[in-house]
């Protein structure tokens, strides 16, 4: 088909579906841990990076299985089945009704959900990691030697399908997660957010199987990684056996393997180890890079996602693949040629060093954003303190005295104060004074809690309601909280959207209820039913992370009169402020990751590419292990300080890498291999001559 083997189209479609499945699931994973499983940020981050580390450790296992036993086709097939089962198990594990026996939406007993989720993630890690080194190589096997141009085009299509799957899934699955679903109660729809990737993985498997009769299946030919490992192991073992001074030293410690392995393999292994030595500092970069899906997503939950439409916190990850698509051609066609014109020797290792520096700067930018978020975060009372807010729902001004003689506060009609902080043990009562009336409100306070005093002057006296707010933190999910206070003289029934707040007696207050911030819808309809009339009004557009008290003041025809009081400000720092840190990290990725792979492949023999790929993936896994160690063991309380810590560590590693790189001498593996081929030819020629001489002498 257009000069291509028909089989490669099945492989490209399979890769698109698999990448959609993986990145779609991964995009919502951190919020699933914090919002559904109710894990704290540090533990959620640790488990997330444990999963990512496992995804980058299993490719080594997959490559060994494919090259030594099953072959690429069977390895992809069997591990794709494991992968699809894992996605299905994770989706089932996210169903709230599995353990919600009382049907009220509470999720206290999450043991079954957690067990299924962990089993699902382990199976996914085995599947996605195991097939990672096989699929692209299997696609390359479909071409003949003379189809070099078509093979190159295939790899371009292959990587385009990866980016397309990543872009679409990172946009779609957070939107599915933010929708509401449930049998008894409506909650964030994780079964759908995980279910769609599970379906795509099943589609990927079916598409791959359909093309099975068209594939060229190369038999396993042994794994070079095992050969290199055996060679290194034998050299170490042999050197240890001959450690006494009576044995002469050899030029290189790997030369101790010469008794068992040929010189060519030893020389190739030396070249590979020189590159792998440079990999030692690399995990620190990946420790920074992979926090896009954990710490940066959690940071976005405390930010404002209103771009004219609502952006979910986990959708901000889409900035990276979009910028990659833009930056790679710009850097290759504009930046590098300009650097070359300036006659700067911008070697691959120098590019990687600059990439590390930009990665550190990305985390400095993240720290600055976090400082601004913390500045706007509400101050909650300490254990020995209480906070009180005053709301005057009447038509006349009033003064509230905090007894005994602590403070006097004037409150205008239909206005409210901010929360005021007092020592719990010192505050005993509140004395409300209007123009003609007064009232004393006795108090029973708990330390570390917030309260609201709502009051107004009525015909027979001052009506008041002292309310325990029962919120001591921002809404975890980034949604807003809303409650209603009935300022009608009669009992009313209140609904907002699909939420029924029930009947409210005059001057009583409802409990706070979650307000969902949708991708498309910006407001709800607030409806009130009274014995005399029904009226309604559209609500304001609620932002992420706010809390509101809404006063129901009366009906004018069918229009409801309401007044909003902001109990907690919504997130004010806009998510757009994350774009600079994503830009810096994407530039770092282009300079570090793309250049690093290119450098590695240029410095290793052609038959050793798999060894370097294994080392590269291992560095990613170790980087994620660093994050889970820091997240699990860190005593840093401020998130901005942790960002600064990672930036500082990466800067130190950047300096170390620059020093190591300065001692590196670039080589041409093709020249070295050509020398060995010439030596082998000379040896073969010499052997042939000796055989001829021996034959002549016999005659």
From TrEMBL:
InterPro entries recorded: MFS_trans_sf (IPR036259), Oligopep_transport (IPR004768), POT_fam (IPR000109), PTR2_symporter_CS (IPR018456)
PROSITE patterns associated with the record: PTR2_1 (PS01022), PTR2_2 (PS01023)
Catalytic activity entry: glycyl-L-leucine(out) + H(+)(out) = glycyl-L-leucine(in) + H(+)(in); L-alanyl-L-prolylglycine(out) + H(+)(out) = L-alanyl-L-prolylglycine(in) + H(+)(in); L-phenylalanyl-L-phenylalanine(out) + H(+)(out) = L-phenylalanyl-L-phenylalanine(in) + H(+)(in); glycyl-L-aspartate(out) + 2 H(+)(out) = glycyl-L-aspartate(in) + 2 H(+)(in)
Record's subcellular location: Apical cell membrane; Membrane
Topology in membrane: Multi-pass membrane protein
GO biological process: protein transport
Cited NCBIfam families: 2A1704
Transmembrane feature ranges: 46-64, 76-95, 110-131, 152-172, 192-211, 271-289, 318-339, 351-371, 610-631, 643-667
Protein name, per record: Solute carrier family 15 member 1
């Amino acid at each position: 088909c257009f000069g291509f083997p028909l089989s490669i189209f099945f492989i490209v479609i399979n890769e698109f579906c698999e990448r959609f499945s993986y990145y779609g699931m991964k995009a919502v994973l951190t919020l699933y841990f914090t919002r559904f499983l109710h894990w704290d940020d540090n533990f959620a981050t640790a488990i997330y990076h444990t999963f990512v580390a496992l995804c980058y450790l299993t490719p080594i296992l997959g490559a060994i299985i494919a090259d030594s036993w099953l072959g690429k086709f069977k390895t992809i097939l069997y591990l794709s089945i494991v992968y699809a089962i894992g996605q299905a198990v994770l989706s089932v594990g996210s169903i709230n009704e599995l353990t919600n026996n009382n049907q009220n939406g509470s999720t206290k007993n999450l043991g079954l959900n957690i067990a299924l989720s962990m089993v699902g993630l382990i199976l996914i890690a085995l599947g996605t990691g195991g097939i990672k080194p096989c699929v692209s190589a299997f696609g390359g096997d479909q071409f003949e030697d003379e189809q070099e141009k078509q093979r190159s085009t295939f790899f371009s299509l292959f990587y385009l399908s990866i980016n397309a799957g990543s872009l679409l899934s990172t946009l779609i699955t957070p939107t599915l997660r933010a929708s509401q679903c449930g049998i008894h109660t409506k909650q964030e729809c994780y079964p759908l957010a995980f279910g769609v990737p599970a379906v795509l993985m099943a589609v990927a498997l079916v598409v791959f199987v359909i093309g099975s009769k068209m594939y060229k299946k190369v038999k396993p030919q042994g794994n070079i990684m095992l050969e290199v490992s055996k060679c290194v192991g034998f050299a170490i073992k042999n050197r240890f056996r001959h450690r006494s001074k009576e044995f002469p030293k050899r030029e290189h410690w790997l030369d101790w393997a010469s008794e068992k392995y040929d010189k060519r393999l030893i020389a190739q292994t030396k070249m590979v180890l020189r590159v792998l030595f440079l990999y030692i500092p690399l995990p620190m970069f990946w420790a920074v890079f992979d926090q896009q899906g954990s710490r940066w997503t959690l940071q976005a939950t405390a930010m404002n996602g209103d771009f004219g439409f609502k952006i979910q916190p986990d959708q901000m990850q889409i900035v990276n693949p979009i910028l990659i698509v833009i930056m790679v051609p710009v850097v290759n066609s504009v930046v590098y040629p300009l650097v070359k014109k300036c006659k700067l020797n911008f070697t691959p290792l120098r590019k990687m060093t600059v990439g590390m520096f930009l990665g550190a700067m990305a985390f400095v930018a993240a720290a600055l954003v976090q400082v601004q978020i913390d500045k706007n975060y509400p101050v909650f009372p300490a254990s020995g303190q209480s906070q009180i807010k005053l709301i005057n729902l009447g038509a006349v001004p009033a003064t509230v005295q905090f007894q005994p003689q602590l403070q006097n506060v004037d409150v205008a009609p239909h206005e409210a104060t901010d929360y005021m902080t007092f020592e719990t043990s010192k505050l005993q009562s509140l004395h409300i004074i209007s123009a003609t009336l007064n009232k004393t409100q006795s108090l029973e306070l708990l330390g570390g809690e917030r309260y609201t005093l709502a009051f107004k002057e009525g015909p027979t006296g001052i009506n008041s309601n002292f309310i325990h707010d029962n919120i001591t933190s921002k809404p975890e999910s980034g949604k807003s909280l809303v409650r209603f206070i009935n300022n009608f003289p009669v009992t009313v029934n209140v609904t907002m959207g699909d939420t029924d707040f029930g009947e409210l007696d005059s001057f009583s207050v409802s409990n706070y209820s979650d307000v969902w911030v949708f991708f498309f819808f910006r407001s709800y309809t607030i409806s009130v039913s009274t014995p005399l009339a029904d009226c309604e009004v559209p609500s304001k557009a609620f932002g992420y992370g706010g809390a509101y008290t809404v006063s129901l003041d009366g009906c004018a025809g069918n229009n409801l009169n309401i007044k909003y009081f902001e109990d907690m400000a919504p997130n004010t720092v806009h998510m757009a402020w994350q774009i600079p840190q994503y830009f810096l990290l994407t530039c770092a990725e282009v300079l570090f990751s793309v250049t690093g792979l290119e450098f590695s492949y240029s410095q290793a023999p052609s038959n050793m590419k798999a060894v370097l790929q294994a080392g590269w993936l291992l560095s990613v896994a170790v980087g994620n292990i660093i994050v889970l160690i820091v997240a699990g063991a860190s005593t840093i309380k401020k998130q901005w300080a942790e960002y600064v810590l990672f930036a500082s560590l990466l800067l130190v590693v950047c300096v170390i890498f620059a020093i190591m790189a300065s001692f590196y001498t670039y080589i041409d593996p093709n020249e070295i291999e050509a020398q060995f081929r010439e030596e082998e030819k000379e040896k073969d020629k010499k052997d042939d001559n000796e055989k001829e001489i021996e034959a002549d002498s016999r005659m």
